[in-house]
Amino acid sequence: GAVVSQHPSRVICKSGTSVKIECRSLDFQATTMFWYRQFPKQSLMLMATSNEGSKATYEQGVEKDKFLINHASLTLSTLTVTSAHPEDSSFYICSASRPPTYEQYFGPGTRLTVT
Amino acid sequence: SQQGEEDPQALSIQEGENATMNCSYKTSINNLQWYRQNSGRGLVHLILIRSNEREKHSGRLRVTLDTSKKSSSLLITASRAADTASYFCATDENRDDKIIFGKGTRLHILP
To answer: Which of A42, A91, A104 sits opposite B99 (nearest CB)?
Structure first.
């Protein structure tokens, strides 16, 4: 089956620094990827839709200048959390939409802890 | 935004019993999916049911879909300790390419 990877799986950073999370589709080309955030004991909340070669579409309430998304190739999307603060600590999960059915395949997630 | 609403929010049952979780949604959909998530881990896709289907089986899983009531149920038969996890339904809101998740049900199987 399709595989989507995320790197890193865990990251700890200091408040005020920026962190980049990568999402890769390993065996298919994904024109669309999605980024989700999940706080403890809560559901996944869609943050943004990442489209290859164009600007990401952000959900209401998600700051585009804080969560920078780059989808520079058909197999890679990156999410950069800029000037991270403790309240940004969360589990970040990406998914990639695989043609022709456009079924979404999810990555294993990245645990971000901001100290 | 969240599309699906699961109930119950938490469920504890004895091993061997059946577990039923329900999900309701608000808009028209092309399909509805159920996922499992073990604590702190990624999502495991369980089953996808299309809007023109009413019931689907996969091993010990049975999913129903009632589009007139905008609801779905997930039944896990003969539960096992390994079934302890959170279960989420997810829909393609307004038949879009986005998937929106429900709040989830935390299932705990007691030995």
So the answer is: A104
